[in-house]
Amino acid sequence: MALNLRQRQTECIIRMLNMNQPVNSSGTANEEVYKILIYDKFCQNILSPLIHVKDLRKHGVTLYFLIDKDRKPVLDVPAVYFVQPSSANVQRIIADASRSLYDTFHLNFSSSIPRPLLEDLALGTLNSDSISRISKVHDQYLEFVTLEDNLFSLGQKSSYVQLNDPSAGDREIEEIVEKIVGGLFCVLATLAVVPIIRCPRGGPAEMVASALDQRLRDHLLSKNNLFTEGGNFVTSFQRPILCIFDRNFELSVGIQHDFRYRPLVHDVLGLKLNRLTVPGEKGGTKSFELDGSDPFWVANGSLEFPEVAVEIETQLNKYKKDVDDVNRRTGGTDGAEFDGTDLIGNTKHLMNAVNSLPELTERKQVIDKHTNIATVLLGEIKERSLDSYAKKENDMIIRGGIDRSDLLGVLRGKGTKLDKLRFAIMYLISSESMNQAEVESVEAALRESEVDTSAFLYVKKIKSLNVPLASVNSASRSNIVDWAEKLYGQSISAVTAGVKNLLSNDRQLALTRTVDALMEGKPNPEVDSYLVFDPRAPKSSSGSASSHLKGPFKEAIVFMIGGGNYVEYGSLQELVHRQHPVKHVIYGTTEILTGEEFVDQLSLLGQKMGLGSAAPAAASTH
Question: GO BP, one example (predicted)?
Answer without folding.
Answer: vesicle-mediated transport
